[in-house]
Amino acid sequence: NTLLCRCFAFQLFVENFVHMAMSRRAQRKLWTVSSRVALPATGQQCMICTAAPLHPTQEEQKAMLEQARRFVDLLEQNPPPIAGSGFQWVVDSKATSERLANDALVKSLPLAIENEEIPGGLEQILEQILDKGARWATNDNAPGYMAYVPSGGLFHSAVADFLGTAMNRYVTIDQAAPVFAAIEKECVKWMCMELAGWTHASCGGVLTSGGSFANLLALHAAKSSKISSVQLAQATVYVSDQAHYCVAMGARFIGVPPSNVRKVPSVSKNLSMCLDSLKQLIRADVERGLIPIAVAAMAGTTNSGAVDDLEGIAQICKENKIWFHVDGAYGGFFAMTEEGRAVLKGIEQADSIVTDPHKGLFLPYGLGALLVREQFSLQRGNRSDGACMQPPAEGEDAVEDIMNLSPELTRSFRGLKMWLPLRMLGADRFRAHLNEKLALTKHAAAAMESASVPNLKIVSPPTLSIFTFKLDDGVLTGDALDALNADFLNRIHSRGNVLLSPFRSVHGTPGELCIRMAILSHRTDLHAVDTAIADIHAAALAAQGLVHETGVLRDSRAHFRVSALEDFVKDYRELARLPVWDTILAGNLQEKRVLDVCAGTGRWAQAFSELVVKDRQVKCDFVDLCSDSTTVLDGRIAHMPNLSGGQVITGDICALDQLGVPALSYDVITNMHGLYGVPGARLSSALQTMYDALKPGGTMILAIGSEHSAYQEMPKECFGISYTSDTDIMEALTLLGIQFTATHINYIEEFSASDEAGLERFLLDECGGNTFPTDTAAEKLDPKCFTKDYARSRFDEASGTYRFPQKISVVTVTRHAGFLPEMQSFGKFYSEAYTLRRQASTMQSNMIAWLRRNGEQHILNRLGSNTDQPNRPLRIASIGCGDGELDIALMEGIAHSVEKWGYSGIEFTGLEPSETFRQKFMENLAAARERGNFPPPEHFTVNLVDNTFDHLKTSVVGQGEADLVLLGHVMYYFSRKEEALKKAMQLARPGGLTVVIHQGKEGIPELQEQLLPTLRGSIRDMFTADDVDNILATGKVDRFVRHNVDAFLDISEIVKGSEDGVKIMSFCLEADHRLASKTVLEASRDAFVDRAVVKGEVGRTGGPFLLETVSCFVVPSQSAQQ
């Protein structure tokens, strides 16, 4: 030991000396040299490494983690193209330019492993190699990735994978890592119960790398259970001709002769295994002296999503004593849903089931599972008894090591990336997403079938979440038909929004090339599906030469007819060239109805007439607020006969229903650059009223300049005016629950130096509109002077032109025909439904009663006495006070006690942008005063402010000045709820309180979560009192109090199926059930009934009732917390 220490001391001296004299590169070389040292115990010469240790320091670890985090963030913020940078589907196997480009890319990268460390470390590798690798690969995480069977790549699992690898524990022996081994076994136990309903103690299974290996293990278990090794030559296995090739491959791997793997023909109607053929094959093999050992049934084929008759195959296996195996790698997890369980009926009778959590649970690649009815079947074929191994478990209470269930001994802790997200999020959230995928697939197939696109045919309809389609004109056959569909697929992909995969319905047969859509990523939502359908429709028309395909990059646009007398600027021409027009205006245009909102003087109308409608005809209505504009518009459309038959309406776009614009009536609604001047407080109303006018299946197109367009920059730089932005529109749509997609148009608006008139018109009319400063000083100025510097800064000396780079955001909204429309927010039906729902529930009345009874005890008492400013009023600030019922109830509960607590009266300030609600507030207040529950007028003041919380000025309610801040049922309306709550709490003074009243999760929110994926094709995250609780808890607000008040909704009218019941159900579920089928009505009604209780409040008659709680949070101010 002494010798070794001396050697190291001398070595350290030399290294420190040389460190001062050598270059960094030479120093690095020294550190990679080893020294020969004699080991003291044996005297043997040994090479002792003097290099830096392999394990990084804590600082190096932090730096690597930060670099990795930034890399992941960059991929999220700037995602690669869905098909990568060089991917292209091909029908044949010949080398293509894309493959050559791939080879060139690989050869250009520094992939070789060198002897020395690289100077840039991880950061250089990320930048030079991994970033290029990620961007060149197909983007499997994109919402539009619907090829093969998508893997969701859930972020929780990526974190779990990192943790499991960083801990690096050995999990296949229980004693080595008992907790981690138990986590893996819990995952298996949970899957046995969810997928097959197995709860008996002897069931089990093992996690694998994927479905291929799991299928091999399953057949190995079948072989071990049914035959001895000497009988392998006689063994036969039966698979569908639609089965994944890994099943037949697995049979060969366990020793079954390839000639004994029987491919059972499928039924042409649904591509499921033909049971008669299966029986015949088994009978023939038995007669020849062969031994059938296993039938592999499919619970969702990879090709078409077909599901075999699991019950029928189970019976055949039982009669012939054959192992019944189910390959549910793709479809198995749909058994978690009610619809999926019905489709997969019979799976519970299986001897073994394969499933892939990296498919059906949206987890990253590398996680499959084999489940077995009897765990001993795995132990029999996989137990190890090597000298270094743990002895096999014995006895009833013995714990079976994972290493004895599979050939894998050393492997990663793969169970953590399944268990962690399930434990964090709960299984119900995964169940809801699976339900959504089933609904989205039905919607996609229905939209494809209902479209008026010639020759577009569904080949195999969806059983779960896969279906196939193709173009077939009944004339082309064989290779010619394949070529048409190959071109069709390439045209879909060229738009860059979706990636699908090819599939041959009959293996290798010319003329059977189909296209396959698989919807199974948690990121694939209604936007992605509708975008895919639009691209498919447009590509189908273009592939058949029926229309020009403007979605593909094309240098020449000569096919567009442009009038020599046009006076619309380049922007409108670009909007007229959007690919979406091919889809939404396909078919008989005369049967469609168009509404142009914020039509102005008709510049977009002219572009629409000349570049979109052309020689066809459509009925078009126009709306604009400005009568001067509509006068010009009237004269302009008189020369557009292809837009005839409509009307020009002058009025407020935020109240289209009051202008006679009918609801649910328009196939297309456009608003091209018309929302800039809409005040933020009214933007949601404008969007909602336009959406309300949209017909089911209709499309709304909104265009607005992005932040860096002249439309936004010029008013801001020249006049200090900030217009409505694309972000404002998308946030408002999100808040309204209206789904949309957004794309961009990039071009340059250019004017010659001599074209002063054109430049002036563009800047003042197009970019500035009529919004100029109106104060006295500004009124004396010519608006042109404001724009000179702006225009000068955009002048290009080289070309002698003014150049304005433009980026226009195009937001597309579709009211989906396959689902029930959202409940309209206006009109008689809505008003009646709102009234009936409110009358049937005691939520509001019970909370009002609670505030009157407990206002002093639970709120004023918590606030404490006013000792800092005697004789001042109690200041209450209410955000979104509405009609004042809750606010007035609170004040009634505390009014007679405020003086006792040191306050001279009450000073109430309420924010409410609705004039109707402000009037109703004053009516309700007058009624309360008549009841005698308020102090005299000199001690009580009310100030109702026409404003929203987003535009609140401190002069109205000062920050840190209110004693009580009230938010009564308003948290729903904030897009950034946590920020809004924090901002509201800041209005309270030190020692003040914020009172939040919000609906609990019980009742309607639970029903919405259950039913909306089926009714409307989306999952709406209903914000409930539990979420308020979570925001406060995670924000370390540790002294808040939550009071829960039970209420009951009388659902007797819903149970009866009456007209009033339909109204109440529509309002509660936010889905208009007047258009629902009998089956949908019954399903919604039954969901209410399933959650109903017999009795409501004591003494209340009627029922049955639905329990729905409401919570009142009393939260001390943040400064008081500190």
Automatic annotation (TrEMBL):
InterPro entries: Aromatic_deC, PyrdxlP-dep_de-COase, PyrdxlP-dep_Trfase, PyrdxlP-dep_Trfase_major, PyrdxlP-dep_Trfase_small, SAM-dependent_MTases_sf. Its cofactor is pyridoxal 5'-phosphate. GO terms for cellular component: cytoplasm. The modification N6-(pyridoxal phosphate)lysine is found at K359. GO terms for molecular function: carboxy-lyase activity; pyridoxal phosphate binding. CDD domains: AdoMet_MTases. It comes from the Eukaryota. It holds the Pfam family Pyridoxal_deC. Keywords: Decarboxylase, Lyase, Pyridoxal phosphate. One of its GO terms (biological process) is amino acid metabolic process. The keyword Signal does not apply. Belongs to the group II decarboxylase family. This is Uncharacterized protein. The lineage of its organism: Eukaryota, Sar, Alveolata, Dinophyceae, Noctilucales.
